[in-house]
Write a structure and sequence with these properties.
The complex is a heterodimer of chains A (349) and B (201). With 349 residues, chain A is of the alpha+beta class. Chain A contains seven helices and 22 strands. In chain A, 24% of the residues lie in helices and 30% in strands. In chain A, α3 (108-133) runs parallel beside α5 (243-254). Chain B is an alpha+beta fold. Chain B has seven helices and seven strands. Classes of the chains: A alpha+beta (349), B alpha+beta (201). β1 (2-3) of chain A pairs antiparallel with β3 of chain B.
């Protein structure tokens, strides 16, 4: 090892070994902290979040709270100080960018769009799961979003159901994309739509993208329901993780009596139309958020069980759920007797 | 030893991480207000082979050596000498696989950036008086293969359970460390016949 001291360096007193640094360069980390919770049985801007047309809605109290995580954006300038502050806050978590934002090339705007599409899809899946449980079904394709200035802009709206492309019925987003790409770029395409329960046709002149025809819409799975159920949550909230809580809220709204027996329940988890509950991120932040907002029971997706180990949940009970049926049963059992035995993730619930 | 790796830092070099955490625990035992320190990290197996007597004194043998790095503390830095400057004039012999440094620092919140006096003594005083300062001990390491690891301990949360570990926490420091390991040979990317060193996956 060659190691020489710089000539002329004045030996300073020892105390100066502790030198100030500001060190403000952005670090490639993301901070998760508890975000707001939303009672899906409640209201947003004066209107019930779950609105129903064509079926009786039973507004009979209780709370079913969806939970959120506040996440720093991929472009946020997080310095060392900010990371350290998050580290010492036990409710916050720090993740490398590569974990929080696995798609390295995506922009912040694309993250938001992705979140909006996921939320829109989750809402439809939630309604489907609830109605399925109540004995209804039917698959369709939905317009999740219309790109600004896209060929379809002004003719197609987010929330429209896409029934057919050039007269051919489509039942999945993949079929719809394939059908549009069959059109010669620049030629018009007829889109069969359903908006507000009424069918209509929109003729869109296709644009060209990578040599193929496109109309500029994002598609999600959707369903043609026998009556209208919509979920009007603050559009700032994105992502798929409220699926289960929305499904329970829709079910509760469509059935007489309070599912929770008037009590406060929170939870998280994705849901699909078959009622399967899937894992989500940030459960360590969602639990304190739910506790803070008064929940007494918290639904944990079975696949997230290892993430809640050691979580401080006070006397709020954690219950493990893997299906919509299981979640309903757990909530009903708990509503009858708050000390009832419930499926748990292991020790300490 | 605490192992609070940030969830998902999967591309860590476990040998480096464990050497850094070992140094962290060792230094932490001496308490705060310590001068900066510098360590060479050598492949334990090579150390056992080259210095059997020393290795046996340290309780190392072939089986404990597998894939691990042993930190060797360098002569104490001259008090007051800035580690950043020392690193700029430091190079390592071939047998050294990596290096690590320990420094205590005051870290100020983003808002303080524009208010820090230029004079170092005034700046230090400013930092010490700042109500939101974080006093942190940083142990950072780097290897020739390009791996980095940092372990941070806050004076306000001085507990083994609260040591924060991660690959990219203090890039300024790990870059300086990595530079001391860089080859001074002229760059020869890929070799003349294009069959250069295989790239790290």
């Amino acid at each position: 090892m060659t190691h020489r001291t710089i000539a002329g360096l004045v030996a300073l007193p020892l105390v100066l070994a502790l030198v100030l640094v500001a060190w403000l360069v952005p670090l490639p980390y993301t901070i998760y902290s508890p975000g707001p919770t939303v009672n899906v049985l409640g209201s947003y801007r004066g209107s019930p979040i779950v609105s129903v047309q064509g079926h009786k809605a039973y507004r009979d109290g209780g709370e079913l709270r969806m939970t959120t995580v506040s996440e720093t954006t991929r472009d946020a300038d997080l310095g060392l100080w900010t990371l350290l502050a998050a580290w010492v806050d036990k409710d916050d978590a720090i993740y490398p960018h590569s974990v929080a934002y696995p798609e390295a090339d995506q922009t912040e705007k694309q993250d938001k769009q992705e979140g909006a599409v996921q939320m829109s899809t989750a809402q439809q899946d939630a309604v489907a799961a609830a109605l399925e449980k109540l004995g209804y079904d039917v698959d369709r394709v939905a317009i999740a979003q219309v790109d600004k200035g896209a060929p379809a802009s002004g003719k197609v709206k987010a929330g429209d159901l896409l029934l057919s492309v050039d007269g051919t019925r489509v039942t999945t987003p993949e079929e719809a994309v394939a059908a549009v790409q069959k059109v010669t770029p620049g030629d018009p395409v007829r889109l069969g739509l359903k908006r507000g329960g009424k069918t209509r046709t929109a003729t869109v002149t296709t644009g060209t993208k990578k040599g193929k025809a496109y109309v500029g819409v994002a598609l999600g799975s959707s369903y043609d329901f026998p009556f209208k159920v919509s979920i009007g949550i603050n559009p700032a909230i994105g992502g798929p993780s409220a699926g289960l809580m929305m499904a329970l809220s829709v079910y509760d709204t469509l059935t007489p009596g309070s599912l929770t027996g008037g009590a406060h329940v929170a939870g998280t988890g994705t849901i699909d139309a078959d009622g399967d509950v899937g894992a989500i991120g940030g459960i360590q932040q969602k639990i304190p958020g739910a506790m803070h907002d008064g929940a007494r029971l918290f639904l944990v997706p079975a696949a997230n069980c290892q993430d809640v180990e050691g979580a401080d949940h006070g006397d709020m009970r954690l219950v493990k759920v893997s299906t919509f049926n299981g979640a309903l049963k757990a909530v009903e059992t708990w509503a009858e007797d708050h000390d009832a035995s419930l499926p748990t993730c292991g020790s300490g619930t | 030893m605490s192992m609070n790796d940030l969830t998902g830092d999967l591309d860590l070099d476990p040998a480096l991480a464990s050497a850094v955490l070992e140094i962290e625990a060792h230094v932490a035992a001496d308490g705060w207000d310590q001068p900066a320190r510098l360590y060479a990290l050598v492949d334990t197996a090579q150390l056992v082979a080259a210095e059997p007597a020393l290795a046996s004194l340290m309780g190392l043998d072939e089986s404990s050596a597998q894939g691990s790095l042993t930190p060797i503390e360098q002569d104490q830095l001259v008090p007051g000498e800035r580690l950043e400057e020392v690193l700029q004039t430091t190079a390592w012999p071939e047998g050294v696989t990596g290096c690590a440094a320990v420094v205590e620092r005051l870290v100020l919140p983003p808002g303080a950036d524009g208010q820090i006096p230029e004079d170092p003594v005034a700046a230090e005083e400013f930092a010490r008086e700042h109500p939101d300062r974080q006093e942190v001990r940083i142990v950072a390491g780097a290897t020739r293969a390009g791996a980095t690891y940092c372990a941070l301990r806050l004076r306000s949360h001085d507990d083994d359970q609260d040591v924060l570990g991660g690959a990219d926490l203090v890039p300024q420091l790990t870059q300086l460390l990595a530079a001391t390991l860089a080859d001074d040979e002229p760059d020869d990317p890929g070799g003349i016949d294009g069959a250069g060193e295989p790239e790290e996956p």
